[in-house]
Amino acid sequence: MALILIIDDDNAFRSTLAETLEDLGYSVRQAGSCEAGVRCLADGGIDLAIVDLRLPGDDGLAFLRQAASTAPGLPCIVLTAYASGSNTIEAMRLGAFDHLIKPLGRDVLAQTLVRALRASEPAQGAASTSPEPTAEQADEQMVSNSEAMRAIFKRIGLVADSDNSVLVQGETGTGKELVAQALHRNSARSAGPFVAVNCAAIPSELLESELFGHVKGAFSGAATDRLGRFREADGGTLFLDEIGDMALPTQAKILRVLQEREVMPVGARHALPVDLRVVAATHRDLEAEVEAGRFRADLWYRLQVITIKLPPLRERTGDVALLASHFLQQHQQQARGVRKRLSNTALEALQQFDWPGNVRQLRNTMQRAIALSEGELIEPEHLGLANGRGAPTQPGANSAAGSPVDIDWDGPLEQAVARLESFMLERALDAAQGNRSEAARRLGLSRQQLYRKLAQYGLDS
User: Fold this and answer.
1) Tell me: the pLDDT tens digits for 17-52?
2) Residue 268 near residue 215 (C-beta atoms within 8 A)
3) 146-309: CATH topology
4) Is it true that 146-309 and 313-394 share their CATH fold?
5) Angstrom distance (rounded) from CA 29 to CA 235
6) Tens digit of pLDDT for each residue in 264-285?
7) 183: Cβ contacts below 8 Å, ≥ 6 apart
8) Per-residue burial over 177-203, b = 16 or more CB atoms within 10 Å of its CB, e = otherwise
9) 313-394: which CATH architecture?
10) According to the model, what pLDDT value does residue 289 have?
11) Tell me, what's the pLDDT at 31?
12) pTM recorded for the entire structure
């Protein structure tokens, strides 16, 4: 019969949980603080610990750190009533078996206990090698209450300390770079640089020099040596965004770097070693791209050692309202001292929208609504959302008859052009379901021109 230690300062919850565990056939010890829990561990005999994240004095994360040395290999389940990206990632990184939200369902608890005890059988006595964490990181950029995203947070925590390549997949705007940043911040390389490269935004003829660097005189205009992004990221993490848009010849050179851990700058005679982790991301189906001959199979196999698939916002139940509130708080400085809030009809409009541009589109929508609403209340007309996916909302009072975008036709030309360009950019991205290459084609722009326009209007992040 396994002996389970419960650490929680809520006496009523602790007693109820103890009764449930005893009903399930387990023996139970109880502690009301981290310090008392550590003393119980020192007495020996504990097979599993269930610890609340928020405790008086040292918290549940402190218990995880001490348990790693006091009882190596002990499976720990962390509980919290207030889950966030950062505490989930940190708990999993410190060795927690799972991170559950109160209140606990009996079936979920029973299944988790069975899995944890079974997994710990061969692991007892194996010491943890996780480094001590630094100050709390800003993982609340990744805000979610959905089970799909909680699984992502757990996966980030589990693989952050690995040096294996990671492939992050998901539609445009789902937060792939935020995942890469979280992996870096929670890794042993966190003191090193985080270097991000958007492979789709750089012309193919310049990408090799951008990534691998060049020596002086390697080509016309190469007046000085250039390190290149791989060497800039030495000791840290290199994030290759939109790697699915990379040309095949460059893919071959990326593969060589991943295999040999050395780069050959353009014009150089000798390869130079690099020590870094590579995180790649794409909105494309790379398996389909491989079958179509547009992506190298060997590079795909090399990248997908660890895969993280981000769900689109439309599949993240309940997250739209949470994220909208988060973005309102984040951008309050734009509100000129007025405390903005969503009306019920505006919130309903947000929740009913399909969000083809995902979290990025929602954030931009909230920024626009803050800027356009005059009072404290944000109404549906301030959101500028499409009715469905294509038709825009009704224009405001300043719009010309039949105009799809709210423009002051009697105002300065520069402002009117900026509003129209911004609207057309967002409309093209929505119609292309976030595919920037397709959006550029629709607008008659090169990809580089599109990226410059997106940056100009704050639509690029």
Assistant:
1) 999 999 889 999 999 999 999 999 988 899 999 999
2) yes
3) Rossmann fold (3.40.50)
4) no
5) 45
6) 888 888 889 999 999 999 999 9
7) 156, 159, 160, 166, 237, 277, 279
8) bbbbbbbbbbbebbebebbbbbbbbbe
9) Orthogonal Bundle (1.10)
10) 94
11) 94
12) 0.65
User: What's the token pair of residue 139?
Assistant: 């993982």
- 121-146 pLDDT, tens digit per residue, is 643 333 332 222 233 333 456 888 88
Per-residue pLDDT, 460: 67
Spell out the residues 6+ positions from residue 293 whose beta carbon is closer than 8 angstroms to its own.
none
Classify domain 3-136 at the CATH class level: alpha beta
Q: Where are the domains of the chain?
A: 3-136, 146-309, 313-394, 405-461
* CA distances for 117 relative to 31, 49, 105, 151, angstroms: 20, 10, 18, 20
The angle at the Cα of 145, spanning 143 to 148, to the nearest 5 degrees, equals 100
Looking at domain 405-461, its CATH architecture is Orthogonal Bundle (1.10)
Statement: residue 461 has pLDDT above 70: no
**Is the model's pLDDT at 427 over the cut of 50?**
yes
Residue entry with tokens 């001490």:
66
Pairing of the two strands 166-169 and 377-378:
unpaired
For residues 340 and 375, what is the distance between their CA atoms, to the nearest angstrom?
8
Residue 261: band (very low, low, confident or very high) from pLDDT cuts 50, 70, 90: very high
Closest among 170, 160, 18 to 93, alpha carbons compared: 160
Burial degree of 50 (CB within 10 A; 0-12, 13-18, 19+)? buried
- Mean pLDDT, residues 354-375 taken together: 86
Q: 24: phi > 0 → left, psi -120 to 50 → alpha, else beta; which?
A: alpha
Pairing of strands 277-282, 306-309: unpaired
**Span 53-105, pLDDT tens digits:** 999 989 999 999 999 888 888 999 999 887 677 778 888 888 888 888 888 88
Beta-ladder partners of 308: 168
